[in-house]
Design a protein that fits this description.
The chain is an alpha+beta fold and 133 residues long. Helices cover 26% and strands 37% of the residues. A four-stranded antiparallel beta sheet has the order 1-2-3-4, with helices on one face.
């Protein structure tokens, strides 16, 4: 005899596909799915905060050329130190709240298009919530 016991099969509906995914937050047509739990979508609120910043620094190649050029042409080599390199860093914080469930997801920014993409996804999620209830 087998160690497996028979489990009665119940009519379980197929899981809904996510309509939008924001970090670890997934929104289906009727559910909010997070690692902290799943709740009905009706009444869900989304909050977005942009914590991105632009950092500027002198690139390594400019420092090397300024040092090498110091021995050749002093005044012109200092112009290399005026070169600046901009880099976008930070994250976009998305908070989903419904009743007792509140979940916060930090989406890292990898390019200038990341923050507008996250804001657009949240706007679409808000639209889905308005249709749900």
């Amino acid at each position: 005899m087998s160690d497996l016991t028979r489990v009665d099969s119940y009519s379980v509906s197929q899981p809904e596909p996510p309509l939008v995914v924001i970090g670890e937050i997934a929104v289906t047509s009727s559910w909010l799915v997070t690692p902290a739990g799943t709740v009905p979508l009706a009444g869900t609120e989304f909050f977005v905060t942009d914590f991105t910043r632009v950092e500027q620094k002198t690139p390594t190649w400019a420092i090397v050329l300024a040092i090498v050029g110091f021995f050749l042409v002093f005044v012109l080599s200092l112009l290399f130190l005026l070169a600046r390199e901009s880099r976008l860093t930070g994250y976009v914080q998305v908070t989903a709240r419904n009743g007792h469930l509140q979940y916060q997801s930090n989406v890292p920014v990898t390019s200038a298009a990341t923050a507008p993409d996250v804001f657009g996804r949240v706007q679409y999620a808000r639209h889905v919530v308005s249709l749900a209830g």
